[in-house]
Amino acid sequence: MKRKKGRYGCPNLDCPSFKHQKKYKDNVESCPECGSGLAHVCRSKSCYTVVEDPFEPMCLTCKAKHADKKDMRKKIIGAAGIGAAVAAPAVVKNRGVIKEAAKTVIGLIRK
Prior knowledge:
- By secondary structure, this protein is mainly alpha-helical.
- It has two domains: 1-58, no CATH class; 62-111, no CATH class.
- The protein has helices at 16-19, 60-93, 95-110; strands at 8-9, 39-40.
- A two-stranded antiparallel ribbon has the order 1-2.
- The longest helix has 34 residues, at 60-93.
- The chain is elongated, with a radius of gyration of 26 Å.
- The relative contact order is 0.10.
């Protein structure tokens, strides 16, 4: 039976690879350090939690953190988009004034 692609780790608490939280690819069947079978672990770099469902790449805690970060990014991007949409008409309307001010600033910098 072929295993699902993912990250695997040693579940043996006394194993050095468990202590160092080493993760192995799906082609490694048993732990190179102690020889015990590998268990499916969370794909997050800082997490070593054993995931029971082989079709879930991350544990529930990391999945929740990932969803929170994703929502925060959407919120920030949405706010920046609204700011740009409000500022864009003013920039287009006053582009001549902005162009002259930029030339003045560049002239002052060069002196």
